[in-house]
Amino acid sequence: MINKRRMVAVCLLSGLLLLLVPHFVTAKTEKKVVVLTRMMDMADRWFRKNIIAPFSKDHGIDIAVASFDKFWDLEVMLKLDRDSGKHAIGVVKVPLEMTRPLIDFMIPYDELMSNKALEELKIQYDSSAIEMGTINGKLYYLPRKLETRMMFYLKPKVKEAVDNWKRYEGRIIKALKADNDIGLPLGYQLEKDPNRWDYYDIFVVSYYWAHTPYYGIKMPRMAHRGKKYGGTVVGLVDRIYQMGGSVEDVLAMSTDPVVDMFVWEAVYKKSKLYNPGMWQDPWSGGGIWNGLKDGKAFLAMMHQIDSFFIHGGTHPQMQGYLVDPNDMGLAVMPMGGSFELNPAGRPYRVGSRAAGTSGWWWGIPKTSPDLATSLDLAKWITNHDNHLAECKIFGMMPIRKDILANLEKVFPEGWMGEVFDVSVKQLGLNGKRTVPLLPEYSKVGKIYLDAWYDIVVGDNYGPGGRIDRDYIKQRLQTVYLPKIKEIYKTGGK
Predict the structure, then answer these.
(1) Helix pair angle (481-489, 441-452), 10° resolution
(2) Which tens digits make up the pLDDT trace of 350-363?
(3) pTM of this prediction?
(4) Which of 13, 35, 110, 293 is the most buried (most CB within 10 A)?
(5) pLDDT tens digits, 169-212
(6) Distance CA 385, CA 239 (A)
(7) 8 A C-beta contact, residue 130 and residue 123
(8) How far is residue 311's CA from residue 306's CA, in Å, rounded to a whole number?
(9) Peptide bond preceding 257: is omega within 30 degrees of 0, i.e. cis?
């Protein structure tokens, strides 16, 4: 039987070849380059028309744009391109999570330009973005954008919950007491400002929404990404950081911050506060956008580009997903901490509001059909005018210093200013936290997805339907940690 990985590889190769054939057969020029990307549909169309097409015309080069789905598909596609001898892929849009796993496929920019030219190029970009794209002292990836998740909510729904949650206070305490033996923390009050919320506040507002009929229906109305892909893993790592964890905790898998993350996820799932579309459909970012549009979600963890698409209005095709765009609210991440409360009614452990800073970079494969063209194209995509246009329409966090220096002119006061004000605050809270920048990280991420679907979605969090911290920890230690150890034992193979 052909294994699943091989089947995926064959499908990816077939799709890439189908894309390339018409270009190779009909092109009037000798140079042909494939740009491998992953973008929202509307952003993809804009990118092809406004950035790729002008470059192709001006340089007399035939360029095809191919798309990948899951982050780890990149490794399969690059390997197929290399081993097949086609050598068609010239530029690759790479998420931070995959920068280290893909290093063996990429050529550093240091080898494509003089030291002076390289320094003149690097000085144009945010130093932290350059640092994240630098490995072993060499620039392997040119920055495209930085990202951070924030808390996205609907302002009227939050105000309603803050004003009326006490009608459910007894039921909320009972639901929590079933698993922490106490209920709400001592002296609990729901803050009006979501920037001051913690994980108990998220429970309270989501419980209110789930038990209040809207449009004649009661249903859970909180969400985060649930599709089996890298975006969901990023969100889980964010929550480990909010529990006070570190990169080392992510890799150790069964330390307190990781267990705290899984416990809280189980708490929200057990109390039916997460919209089940997260794992049934399952939802990526676009699924949550539609959930907001259809009244199925009132709160989610989203990044800047999500916010621009949901709000709309920056382009004729950016219609938005809210009845009233003014309803959009943003706040920094909730304060993390243990679900378990001590005898004084306080969390045993208090975490932070951090998330991992992530983003995307442009890499050039060693097997590029034309290294000079690949370099020119990477610089063209990220030049001042092109980068500014993309940032203003799609809400990308700028990585060019000449744009960052005039941020208020690019994103004026109002909702765009709010998006970037909160983004900057969140980035400050993040510090230097990112996903683990290790070659084996993509495989670790798949293990986290399996664990989340098992423990949280599968309600496998303790005997008798009670959320049992020790049970979750033991399952992580006995089922999933050995898989992570095996990855490092075999060098990620």
Answers:
(1) 160
(2) 999 999 999 999 99
(3) 0.90
(4) 35
(5) 999 999 999 999 999 999 999 999 999 999 999 999 999 999 99
(6) 36
(7) no
(8) 9
(9) no
